[in-house]
Structures are given as structure tokens and as C-alpha cells.
């Protein structure tokens, strides 16, 4: 993924092409058929979506399914909130497994958020 994206609208939902440098973005905007009479381009930094799995949510789902299976599961202490290090460890492990699966099957996120948007002149 390139570092920057550009648009002729600073509040765009979809941004045009991206590039590794601001200079490349400006060159793309100048050459764009969409330029029309735009005298400026807005360029921002691409922030990728980071996949993260919350162990507490996963364990709560498992506990809920166990309760549906048998009401005696209500007393099952599937995790201890006082042992946050255990939940952090499981979150890291689950995140790694999900990320590996996404990579293996080529399903990694192909979208990003654009932040730090600045206006650049196209004149000159």
C-alpha cells in the first residue's frame, strides 16, 4: 500500500490513486482527466486497518454458547478479569492466527483511512 492518497475534495469518501510521495500525488492530480478547473489537490496519509481479535469478546461468545447448550455452564469461569495478562496473551495469539489465515487466503484488508489531509496547489 502506498503512503499517500489524493482527491480534489478534502471530504471525499473515496480517494483517487495513491502514491509513495506527495510529489507523485500532485503529478497524478495534474495529469488526471478529472482535474477540470481544480486549482488544488488534497493529500493525506493512508492509515491501514489493523486486524485485532479481542479475547474477552471471543470468550464471552463461547460462554454464551455453552450456556445455551446447558444452563449449568452458567458457573463456568472461562476467564478472570483480574488476570488481564492472560487475556492479552490470548488476544495476541488469536490475532496472529486470524492474520495468518487472512494472508494465506489473500483476504487481507484492501482499504484504509486517510488522515492528516492538507491542501496543495496545482498551479505552477
Keyword list:
4 strands; 124 residues; 20% strand; 37% helix; single chain; alpha+beta
Give a short overview.
The chain has helices spanning 22-31, 55-69, 84-104; strands at residues 4-7, 18-19, 40-48, 112-121.
Question: What's the overall average pLDDT, rounded?
Answer: 94
Instruction: Name the shape in a single word.
Output: rod-shaped
Determine Rg (CA atoms, Å). Answer: 23 Å
Structural class: alpha+beta
Query: Strand content of the residues, in percent?
Result: 15-25%
Looking at how many chains there are and whether they match, the oligomeric state comes to: single chain
Count of DSSP E strands? Answer: 4
What can you tell me about this protein's structure?
This protein is 37% helix and 20% strand. With 124 residues, the chain is an alpha+beta fold. It has a four-stranded antiparallel beta sheet. The longest helix has 21 residues, at 84-104.
What topology emerges from the helices and strands here?
Layout: E1 4-7, E2 18-19, H1 22-31, E3 40-48, H2 55-69, H3 84-104, E4 112-121
Antiparallel strand pairs: 1-2, 1-3, 3-4
